[in-house]
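> forwarded from #structure-qc
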């Protein structure tokens, strides 16, 4: 199975924006996505998730791994000198999902989002040949922004896995995962919390976009586009209503992607090229 399979089928917005990257960068980015996706799926799609992820981490640490994606990822890690810290933090975040997820505050939510997505943003920065510490910080923020969008979008799906990522301080009472998955449950206050997560994500998108100036010219537009496509999901959640949100998954369709691609191209040229 090719590395691009994962980003093409599970990361459609990234796949779309990635096509504006040079082929080498796109393929290396696809390997990073596949590596992270496989690790994440071990938690989401397995009852014995803790043992599965521990085995995956052990195989990653082995010099004789037979896992094709692990071996490909190790090559790009060496190619771009990606610090081990970000991989360790990613694993720490994924392992949190093998336990009962209980996020008490916005601060804890941001910390979790750093572990599972901010780290990926940092690793992408290295793949895109940007190691300036300021650039890494902005890349981490963009990863956090996208994870907050994921959390806001996937509340019901996560609840069916027994998880609630919405901070307890945003919920007026203790809500159980089974309540969220129950169609007869009053979700009005829950929807308000979901919208607050989207609002929270905006400052991280702003920071992520501000970091684009640190990237090589050929890479700036694809990252700006990826940010805009993902941010659009949040806009659709905000403009949605309770019934629509809980009855169907929010996503950005083909023609929306096409429109955003054209719109961001003109915005990008005005903002980054015209001085």
């Amino acid at each position: 199975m090719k590395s691009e399979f994962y980003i093409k089928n599970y990361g459609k917005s990234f796949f779309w924006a990635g096509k504006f990257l040079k082929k080498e960068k796109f393929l290396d980015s696809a390997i990073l996505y596949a590596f992270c996706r496989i690790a994440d799926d071990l938690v989401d799609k397995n009852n014995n998730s803790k043992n599965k992820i521990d085995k995956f981490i052990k195989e990653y640490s082995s010099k004789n791994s037979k896992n094709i994606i692990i071996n490909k990822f190790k090559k790009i890690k060496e190619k771009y000198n990606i610090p081990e810290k970000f991989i360790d933090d990613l694993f720490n975040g994924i392992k949190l999902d093998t336990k009962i997820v209980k996020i008490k505050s916005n601060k804890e939510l941001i910390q979790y989002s750093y572990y599972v997505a901010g780290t990926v943003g940092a690793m992408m920065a290295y793949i895109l040949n940007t190691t300036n510490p300021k650039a890494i910080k902005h890349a981490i923020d963009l990863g956090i922004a996208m994870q907050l969008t994921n959390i806001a979008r996937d509340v019901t799906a996560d609840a069916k896995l027994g998880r609630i990522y919405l901070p307890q301080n945003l919920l007026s009472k203790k809500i159980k995962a089974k309540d969220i998955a129950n169609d007869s449950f009053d979700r009005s206050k829950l929807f308000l919390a979901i919208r607050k997560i989207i609002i929270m994500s905006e400052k991280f998108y702003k920071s992520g976009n501000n970091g684009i100036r640190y990237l090589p010219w050929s890479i700036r537009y694809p990252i700006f586009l990826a940010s805009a496509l993902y941010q659009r999901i949040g806009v659709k959640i905000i403009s949605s209503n309770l019934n629509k949100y809980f009855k169907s998954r929010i996503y950005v369709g083909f023609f929306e992607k096409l429109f955003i691609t054209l719109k961001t191209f003109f915005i990008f040229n005005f903002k980054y090229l015209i001085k």
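QC bot note: The CA atoms of residues 40 and 94 lie 6 Å apart. The mean pLDDT is 91.
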